[in-house]
Amino acid sequence: MMIIIAWIIALVSLAVIIFIVFRKFPVLANIDIGEIEAERQAELKRKILNDKFKRSVTKVFKELGKFLKPVGKSLVSLFGLLYNRLVNLKENYAEENQTTDIDVNKKIEVLFAEAKDLTHKEELAKAEAKYIEIIGIDSKNYKAFELLGENYFHRENYEEAEQTFEHAIKLKEQLKKADEDISDMEVAKTLFNLSLVYQKMNNSGVALAKVKLALELEPNNPRYLDKMVELCIMTKDSSQAREYCQRLESSNSGNKKLKELKDKIRDLESKTVIENEQSSDILDN
User: What percent of the chain stands above pLDDT 70?
Assistant: First the structure.
C-alpha cells in the first residue's frame, strides 16, 4: 500500500513540475544576458539558459529523489528518463522559437530606422536601447556597434564609447579574416572615431596612434590627415605636423584649414626654437 501511495505522490509531483517548467519556457527564452556581449553572445545565451534550466530541474529531482528513495531503483530510472526528456523539450522549444520569429533582417531594418529617428529627435538613450536590441539579435552586426559607439560619444559617455569602438574594430577584423566583405575603409572609420574619443579623454598620444593606423589603411583621407596635423600640433611635434600638412595639401589642396594649420605649425616651430635657445643658455650658465 505504501509503495502505491509513493507512486501516486511521485506522479502528481512530476505532473506539477512539468506544468511549472513549461509555463516558464517563454520567460527563460527571453532572459536578457546583458547589453553587449562578445561575438558568441547568442551561443552563450543558449548555454546560460540551458544551464539555468538544468540546475533548476536537477535540484527538484534531487529533493524528490530523497523523498522517494524507498520506492526503489525503478522509479529513479524513470525520473532519469523524464529529466532527459524535459531537457530535450526545452532545447527544442528554444530552437522552434528562433525559427518562428518574424524575419530577422526585417526586424533589424525596422530597429535601425527607429534608432535613426530617435537620434534625429535627440532621444539618444532610447536610440541606444534600439542598437542594443539589434546586437541582441545579431551579435556580429558591426554597424550597430559603430552607431552605438557614436551614440555614447555624443552623450559624452567616453569610456563606453571607447569600449564599444574597440569591440567594433575587433569584430570587423575577425569578419575580414573570415572573408566577410569588410573593407579597409570600414576599419579605418572606427579607428578614427576611436581617436576622437581618446582626444576627448585628454589622451592625445593614443589618439594620434589611432589616426596613424587609420591612415595606414586610407593614406589620402583628408579628414584623417587634418586630424593628424591637429594632434601633432597638440603634442608639439612640428616636424610631423609639417609632413602631414604637406600630405593634406597634396590630397586636398582646396582645404580651407590649410592656411590656419600652416600658421600654427610656424608658431610651433618658432616657439620650439626659442625654447631650445633658452635651454641652451641655461646650460651655458
Answer: 60
